[in-house]
Amino acid sequence: MKTEKDKKIKLYDFTIFTATSVLISYAVLLTLFLYMGFTNEKNGFVGFIIAGLLFLSLGLILWMFVYMAPYLDKKGAHHGKKVISIYNIKFRNDYNMRFREEQIIIEDKLVKYEKLDKKEINKIVIKVQNTKANIRKVNEYCKIFDIKY
What we know:
By secondary structure, this protein is an alpha+beta fold. The chain contains four helices and seven strands. The strands form two sheets. It has a four-stranded antiparallel β-sheet, covered by helices on one side. It has a three-stranded antiparallel β-sheet with strand order 5-6-7, with helices on both faces. The relative contact order is 0.15.
């Protein structure tokens, strides 16, 4: 039986509104191009090709933002090959000037970030959008493992 400490907490880099609008847009476009594929006698294959490319891009988006989303567990924070141990984990909020949004940055306490350039820092920190759901999940995680946020 899994306890609170055993479960994975996924941090998604999107809001419910963003996900809903993207999925609705894909549904409309897929419907449009599949309709074009079935009804157009001369150039129907173009609709099927575009619909196939849309399915492929939707699959890649879901893989990137849902399956490969950063997560927190009893060992620490993980995102792809990046791993930050639970004993050295540090959370902070920052404003991203490029995307004009708040984000949660997960860092390693033992690394001296002042001595590193921006590219090296981006290779070792984990960044996620500062949504209400992510804040709630990080606070829950910090409460379970007694970490200061």
